[in-house]
Amino acid sequence: MSRYNWYVVQAKPGQTARAQQELENQGFDLFVPWIEVEKVKRGKRVTEEEPMFPGYLFIWLSEMESNWRPIRSTRGVARIITFGNKPAIVPPAVVEALRSKLRVDKEPEHQLKVQQKIEITEGPFKGLDAVFEQYDGEQRAFVLLELLGKWQRLSVDLGSIRG
Fold first, then answer.
1. For residues 129 and 150, what is the distance between their CA atoms, to the nearest angstrom?
2. Does the pLDDT of residue 77 top 60, yes or no?
3. What is the C-alpha to C-alpha distance for residues 130 and 142, in angstroms, rounded to an integer?
4. Phi and psi for 99 in degrees, rounded to 5?
5. N or C: which end of the chain has fewer CB within 10 A?
6. Sequence-separated (6 or more) residues with CB below 8 Å from residue 21
7. What does DSSP assign to residue 30?
8. Where is the NusG-like N-terminal domain positioned along the sequence (predicted)?
9. Choice among 13-22, 75-84, 131-140 with the minimum mean pLDDT
């Protein structure tokens, strides 16, 4: 009876997705933790998926029963990570902890919507109600605040407002 373990495959630079697809096409069982990352591109806030560990994939193999030969010549794959001459084993608890963390993170995060009423929780306008207008980069937002009978547009820190 051969025991299966998680091992680490290193992808060529910028080819994690390609290596993942090619190895899956060959029938290998993989785990590649992808996370959503918010970035500002051309002044707009966008969400992109990126690998949690760029350039690395976890692969489920048996040292005795699995055919390791095709892995090395797979498109996008650079090598299998080793310690000395033996492939490095990743404890199953580590992979399971990553999977659990990703499941929790995929729960819907509270995102502010245009025209949503919010409360300012810090700063000189603390305790005042405002209206969310749009994000202003990664850490700030534009809000509309009624002052002296007129609507004023302010840029505030995201940590100082609550939806």
1. 14
2. yes
3. 10
4. -60, -45
5. N
6. 76
7. E
8. 3-102
9. 131-140
* Higher pLDDT pick, 144 / 112: 144
Range of the domain at 74: 4-105
| 101 and 126 in a common domain | no
Residue 110: inside a domain: no
125 and 57 share one domain: no
* 141, 145, 147, 153: CA torsion to nearest 10: 50
Backbone phi and psi for residue 114, each to the nearest 5 degrees, phi listed first: -60, 135
Q: Cα–Cα distance between 52 and 54 in angstroms, integer?
A: 6
pLDDT tens readout for residues 91-133: 999 999 888 888 765 544 557 888 889 998 888 888 989 998 8
pLDDT at 115: 87
Q: Rg (Cα) of the chain, in Å, rounded?
A: 23
